[in-house]
């Protein structure tokens, strides 16, 4: 058995039916308990995201929008471009449907993560806000063992999963295939740029994220819409192929051997989680740094991350792959498939360059976001003295990431993602009563009190959003 085969066997076990059921089941449970909050409260959440920031005097390190952009910087990455193509290659177009399902329920999960992150956050020795699953597992659930397990997995994901290898390898491939840039040159430029930004800490990362994330998302959406407009007549058939393949993949794929509903489901859910990170516990680490009046308010803002990431951007990528027909080419995979789709869709090499630029920007910001996540996990385990050594190791792994084999990268990323999700999901279920109580207290308050700062009479009476 080769190393790759061994890791694939471990991955199949980790991402078997139990974890899929735990991920989606947690989202379903929270959706029911919260009364379809991701539908009913989505307009309010979007208003908070795009509304005026009036929280300069609240506790926290960055604005709520900057915290969301930092989280989106980490989540909108290769999963939205390479990951969708990988899911479609592994599970057929039906994998996209299961990405939608996981994202819909994942919005409730992401809301709960953001809420708990602010509720249980603390101020570290450097005067910065620290929060996330390791803190609500220890301070809320009372389990230091689960907290440490999550933090350790978070460092592994940052080092060997989403944070470095998968992103760097994707940038290297895109730069090499489309722009003819040698891998060594890509590694040098990328490593230098990452070092300049990440050594400046959260505020430096947030400043870059606030500028780059909105630009890259709008740019990619415009490019995708251009392809879809040029193939408008094929969209209804593409949607039917996606739905048919989700429940009958062998028929949709011409009797592809071994293709089952579980295959499509596992590919869609795993790649969807890799993309939007709902249930992983990563985004609440950024949410904890937000200057915010309310843990519920920040939960709503965090929830929109999954909406933007999967419901909007991954859907764009998936539809482009299907309407152009490149998904059915066995010779294409990953970034090559997406590049081919945009080139065919726009009937020009400009399409390939658009996909390449989108991929490079997405992957670069993901590296920055995951550097911060791993740093907070390191600080939890080793204190502030561990931050600088962590940053140096992270930068070194970015430099090495361009020379690691792609297949092994994705399998390793899936494994550590799954291991990271387990303690976080246990925490969300164990603290679901707190989540429901905080949500009810927030929305049952009088209208003028709904946006009142923590410490108001309404909050003191309900216990909502206590300061750590």
Automatic annotation (TrEMBL):
<keyword id="KW-0812">Transmembrane</keyword>
<keyword id="KW-1003">Cell membrane</keyword>
<feature type="transmembrane region" description="Helical">
    <location>
        <begin position="95"/>
        <end position="112"/>
    </location>
</feature>
<feature type="transmembrane region" description="Helical">
    <location>
        <begin position="307"/>
        <end position="327"/>
    </location>
</feature>
<feature type="transmembrane region" description="Helical">
    <location>
        <begin position="392"/>
        <end position="413"/>
    </location>
</feature>
<comment type="similarity">
    <text>Belongs to the alanine or glycine:cation symporter (AGCS) (TC 2.A.25) family.</text>
</comment>
<keyword id="KW-0472">Membrane</keyword>
<keyword id="KW-0813">Transport</keyword>
<feature type="transmembrane region" description="Helical">
    <location>
        <begin position="212"/>
        <end position="232"/>
    </location>
</feature>
<feature type="transmembrane region" description="Helical">
    <location>
        <begin position="419"/>
        <end position="437"/>
    </location>
</feature>
<dbReference type="GO" id="GO:0005283">
    <property type="term" value="F:amino acid:sodium symporter activity"/>
</dbReference>
<dbReference type="GO" id="GO:0005886">
    <property type="term" value="C:plasma membrane"/>
</dbReference>
<keyword id="KW-0769">Symport</keyword>
<feature type="transmembrane region" description="Helical">
    <location>
        <begin position="65"/>
        <end position="89"/>
    </location>
</feature>
<feature type="transmembrane region" description="Helical">
    <location>
        <begin position="238"/>
        <end position="262"/>
    </location>
</feature>
<feature type="transmembrane region" description="Helical">
    <location>
        <begin position="353"/>
        <end position="372"/>
    </location>
</feature>
<dbReference type="Pfam" id="PF01235">
    <property type="entry name" value="Na_Ala_symp"/>
</dbReference>
<feature type="transmembrane region" description="Helical">
    <location>
        <begin position="180"/>
        <end position="200"/>
    </location>
</feature>
<feature type="transmembrane region" description="Helical">
    <location>
        <begin position="149"/>
        <end position="168"/>
    </location>
</feature>
<feature type="transmembrane region" description="Helical">
    <location>
        <begin position="20"/>
        <end position="44"/>
    </location>
</feature>
<dbReference type="InterPro" id="IPR001463">
    <property type="entry name" value="Na/Ala_symport"/>
</dbReference>
<keyword id="KW-1133">Transmembrane helix</keyword>
<protein>
    <submittedName>
        <fullName>Sodium/alanine symporter family protein</fullName>
    </submittedName>
</protein>
